[in-house]
Structure formats: C-alpha cells, structure tokens
Amino acid sequence: MTLATLGLGAKLQRGDDASPEVFTTIGEITNIPGVGEDAPDVDVTSHDSSRREYIAGIPDGSEITFQANWSGSATQDHLTGFIKAAQDQEKDKYRLVLISGTTLHFEAQAKGWKILPNLDSQEVLEGSIKVSGAIAFS
C-alpha cells in the first residue's frame, strides 16, 4: 500500500525579515511548480581522455513561477506585498510547507510578476522567485 499524498494544501510562505521571523502564506495559489536544485555538468575532458568526462558543477536553485487567484481586493495584501517585493528586487526567506509535514526553507530573489486577465477563467497573478543558496528541510 502506498504512502503517497496529494499536493493539495501546500503553502508557499514569505518571511518579513523581523526578529523573530514571521511567515505569511501567499494565498490562493493554484500552481506551485517543483522546488529544488540542479548541478550543471562541467566538461573536464582532456586530450588523455578516451571518452568525455564530467564533474558536477555548483548546484543552482530552481526558478519558481507560481500562479494565484487575483481579485485586486484589499484582502489580498499577501499578493500586493509580493508585487512590492518584486518591484524592489527583494531577497527574502521563503518556506514551502507540504501536506506531508515536510517544510522546505530557502532564500529567494523576487524576480517578477504579471496579472493574467484570462478570457475564459479567473484573473491570475503570476509571480516568479529564484532560489538563492541552499534549500533546507525540516
């Protein structure tokens, strides 16, 4: 029997840089793509090699582009706060809280945002952040 769980209920949270740090959930997120890191291949092939040889490069954190329902109301301070962070090019602490009980902790640079006024569905805020440094688990 599997122990798998649905991702429904995952929360992306942004810290406020206070002491102690307080995290606010970025609400009504409809899509959070994978969060992780990838080490590039570094080609170290020499004239003495008979085949291409590689070593792992420095791991690079993923860019995360999430989508959230947008209404533009004052009750969406968590979204307007993210937009301000992106405009100010802030690097903040983030947490991804999974329904399985695992939490990923990382710093990320707020990169950008856009409002998608879709014709056949709800208005959406699309935000992007870039992981900076290591990702820790708890």
Rg of Cα set: 19 Å
Beta-strand residue percentage:
over 45%
Low-confidence stretches: none
Number of DSSP strand runs: 11
Largest sheet: 7 strands, antiparallel
Describe the structure.
With 138 residues, the protein is mainly β. It has a single domain, classed as Pnp Oxidase, Chain A (Roll), CATH 2.30.110. 8% of the residues lie in helices and 46% in strands. It is built from 1 helix and 11 strands, in the order E-E-E-E-E-E-E-E-H-E-E-E. The protein has one helix at 77-87, and strands at 11-15, 23-25, 29-31, 37-38, 41-43, 54-56, 60-61, 63-69, 91-97, 103-116, 124-137. The strands form 3 sheets. It has a 7-stranded antiparallel sheet. A two-stranded antiparallel ribbon has the order 4-7. The chain is elongated, with a radius of gyration of 19 Å. It starts with 10 loop residues before the first strand and ends with a strand.
Short structural description:
The chain is 8% helix and 46% strand. It is mainly β.
Key features?
138 residues, mainly beta, seven-stranded antiparallel sheet, two-stranded antiparallel sheet, 1 helix, 8% helix, elongated
